[in-house]
Each structure stands twice: as C-alpha cells, then as structure tokens.
Amino acid sequence: xxxxxxxxxxxxxxxxxxxxxxxxxxxxxxxxxxxxxxxxxxxxxxxxxxxxxxxxxxxxxxxxxxxxxxxxxxxxxxxxxxxxxxxxxxxxxxxxxxxxxxxxxxxxxxxxxxxxxxxxxxxxxxxxxxxxxxxxxxxxxxxxxxxxxxxxxxxxxxxxxxxxxxxxxxxxxxxxxxxxxxxxxxxxxxxxxxxxxxxxxxxxxxxxxxxxxxxxxxxxxxxxxxxxxxxxxxxxxxxxxxxxxxxxxxxx
Length: 252
Hints:
The chain is α+β, with helices and mostly antiparallel strands. It has 2 domains: 3-91 and 230-248, Rossmann fold (3-Layer(aba) Sandwich), CATH 3.40.50; 93-225, Probable inorganic polyphosphate/atp-NAD kinase, domain 2 (Tumour Suppressor Smad4, Sandwich), CATH 2.60.200.30. Helices cover 17% and strands 40% of the residues. It has 5 helices and 17 strands. It has helices spanning 11-24, 41-51, 78-83, 154-157, 241-248; strands at residues 3-7, 34-39, 57-62, 86-90, 93-99, 104-109, 112-117, 123-129, 132-140, 142-146, 169-175, 186-189, 193-199, 206-210, 213-215, 218-225, 231-235. The strands form 3 sheets. A 6-stranded antiparallel β-sheet has the order 6-5-16-13-8-9, with no helix packed on it.
C-alpha cells in the first residue's frame, strides 16, 4: 500500500512524519493509494479540499489538539488499520458570492459557509429558501449554513444543532442574533438553495467565508449542497464519524 504522509507545521507532527516514513516509506500524492494526514482538524480540512472530487481517501492521525476528524495516533500496523477503516463521503457546500463591485466568487465548504459583519455595526440580512423569502430582516453579527460533518464546528459554537451524517439536513444558524431576538435558526432539507441578501451594504458591510476562502463586501450569497462532489475520509471502526457525531450530542 503506497502512502503519502502530510504533516502539520508543528514539531510533533513533523517528527511523527519522519518516523512513519522510516517504517512505511513515502510517495507523492499522485502515486499514493491513501493520504495519511498528521495533525489536527485544520490539516484534515486542507487535505479533504485537495482531494475533493477525486477518489483519493484521507486517513488522519491526531497530532494536534481536538482532532475530531482524526484517528488516534499509533505507529503500529498502519497499512492494516487503513485496510480495515470505514469510509465516510462528505459532500461540500457550494458558495456563489456577488460583491458590491459586481465581482462573482465561487468556493467550496466542507464545514460551513458563514456571513460575518465587517464593522462595528450589526449586519442586516434577508434570507430566502428556494426563492421564497423566509426572513425579511435578520439583524445579527452573522449567519451560517453548515454541512452535517461541520455541524460540530463553528455551527455548534454558535449554538446550532448537531446533525447526523445520514439526516440529509443543513442547519441554518444565526450568530448573535439581535432581531428577531429569539430566532435560533432552522433545519433545512439538503436539497434547498439558500440566498442571503445583504441590506444597507454601504453602511453595514458583510464578508462571506467558505472554509478557507473569504470574500469581502458581498451583496448576495447563494449556497447549496453539491452532491456531484465528494471527499472520502477513513476512520478506525471504533472511531466512526457517524458514531462520533451522535456521541457529541451527549457531551456536556
């Protein structure tokens, strides 16, 4: 089994990569059967973006802090562990953002697409779902749409719900909503198109972020799940992603 080792820029991850290469060899990503990511969830997200739309799977081992998307670090029997691993295919959100100057930017998100105020004043955002206006004005610090896999990340920090992978739902979650004050968001079918329109854009500028890609001064942002693309992540049988998402809901 040809493995390509990728490490985060930390001393622990780099030294782990050197030890693993001495035991199992190394090759380029193009030659590999599996990418082995050594780091934390940030590195895993970077690797999944690189393989998005290809059949190349990624197996992560935690050399970071939280490591929600990673397996436990263990240098022994690595090819056997990979051959027995469970596959989870993650589908991204596609963001279509239009800026105040008329520039159109597209980007993919495996965690979430978020809109965030750029200045001191709260943002004002209109929300439509499948071309039907659902909220005429949300006054907030921001709002996000998350994938099920990303529902345990920024979405959870913003008090959004955790979504099982098999639910085919997308959480729509406000960030520090001021009006409607008690609006907690919505659960949407994964087939919908969500449109955010920024109100009073000159006075209340807003940026849109899809994982690593930021677009500033947006006037509208359309988001939908793109099931024509996928990224495959591998988990040890006792660390299945679907089970971990369920377990997270019972964690204080």
